[in-house]
Design brief:
heterodimer, A: 2 helices, B: 416 residues, alpha/beta, two-stranded antiparallel sheet
Chain lengths: 222, 416
Amino acid sequence: MTLSVVMKNKKEKFADPPNFTEKKEYRPADVTEKGLVFVGHEISEDRTVMNQFLHYDQLYTIRHGWNSRFFIGLLEGKIMGTRCPKCGDSWVPVRTHCWNLDCNLQKTEWVEMPLTAQVHTWTIAGWSGRSSLKRLPIILVYANIGTSKVAMANELHGMNPWDVEFGMPLKIVFKPKEQRVGAVTDFHFEPVDFWKPTPMNPEKQRIKDLVMPVYEWVKTLK
Amino acid sequence: MSRKVCIIGGATTPFDYGPTGFESIEGGAAECIKETQQDVPEFSLRDLDLMIYSHFSVHFSHQLAPEWIIHDHLGLVGLPHYRVENGGNTGGSALYAAALAIMSGHHDVVGIVGWETMDSVSQSQGSEFIAMASDIRYELMVGGIYPIYYAAMANKWMKENHVTEEDVATIAVKNKNNAMDNPKAQWYRNDHRYITVDDVMNSRLISYPIKKYDCCLMSRGVAFLLVCTEEYAKKVNPDHYVTVDGMGLSSCTIRAGDRLNNPGWTERYGPGYPGMTEFAACRNSAEKAYKMAGIKDPLKDIDFGEIHDAFSTSEAQIYKALGFADEKTIAKFIRDERTTMHGDIPMNPGGGLLGYGHPVGATGLMSMIECYYQLAGMIPQKHLSKKTEVPDPECGVVNSHAGTGTSISNFILRRH
């Protein structure tokens, strides 16, 4: 048996590279890349312990690859999901291959989801990661979008935190087009127009008591 | 029949949180080994034939392959070494790897060093670093950090299981107060006070229903665990060794929202399980460990446990996943104080993550070490009193838990 090896011209690529024609930069003025820089140190009075301050700033390229249509969809104000042509399961967040082992990694197809969802579970955050502190308190819900078999996390706006309920119907609201960046923060959930909160009850009051100091604390943040 | 896996010693540095750091990481590893040698004088570094390093995030260590610094420092050139990383289940996974190495017959004496230096950044930045183990494309930027994901899961779980905020607060009280008997525990070293359910209920909101005192502690710490064959155990520590009679490792989705209707679970446990509420990987890994160890009734066959109480709520969820109670009995199980020191199955007598601390790569090892101390009768010399000693234990469970329940291991340890 002879083994045939296809030699390619040095400049020829094995896959066609994407031609990136739309490029946007929205880098905040205070974001810089310096790489690794020592920016200070401290030494204890008895000179036995030293701490050093290292700053590390790096630009990452998140290559969305086969998931790209979801993120491009966000820029266009659409929620793109995927669906398995074999078993019919569908997802947002998307899967590019079916999760059902019987479908044996069947490639999925893209489907546009309706801009409606339903709360599966919820929480009210009074503390968060550094980049989210000033948005507190945050109602974070996991909600099923359209026919999706999985629940997706995002913030719920437009209501008092203590009024959130399991199973409540939601609509998806996008930021104005010029503010979108192709990330999940381009949209949030809001209650559907016909939804009305139920009257105050002991649990709601308990949540309100826990949440009110958070509003005050956020005001103290620089 | 594969060979028995034994634990014959181990130690941690004190767990603490900055701002100075009290030792270098490699220095801490050396001190943990020296403390182990005080307990097991016959153990020599020359006996080791494999080192496994248990470390979660190089974001915290600002150094790729930091295990190479420790290994080099210990003078172990030439010895095979590699690092295991599996989120919060890194320690459990490292023991799993060590056990496989011994069961295979390829290695006899395996050392595990685990550590994390979470005080190298601010608490809120640290929360964000840890949250980078969630799917950052979908979850991190919408305000998501782990306490928030856990709160969303626990909120629904508590409603469905009739468990109240006060019920889970008793778990936080139990573990933090147990830590007051443990001089290496971060709660003992920093907050240093006994607390009540009211203290938990009045602490600041982290994410409903979780408050500050329902949460574990971000920590700096190092741990060492010595794992070996029974032949070596009988040679160097015949009176104080324990056997790893059962072990299980299981997995679940990275995003908690992907657990609804997941075909992998449906075919095992039927439709609707685990939803966003139950820790399926805990149940599944416990079933594997119980089968291997011959545990028929966990409540009768297990005397105590060191389990992954990252949040008071998750300890309650773990009770259920370990088969201690079901939907109808879980609230009563907690209210009957079954898992306190005076209960029939104490959980986290060492303080757990809520009291001892949670330097991720060292955490699972800390749980193993506390379980080992209990089974080897060493609590009076390691804790401040006998208050946190389980009376005459034969069998303990150790649980290590990652992500939103994304990887979970369980081990059954028995006294010999």
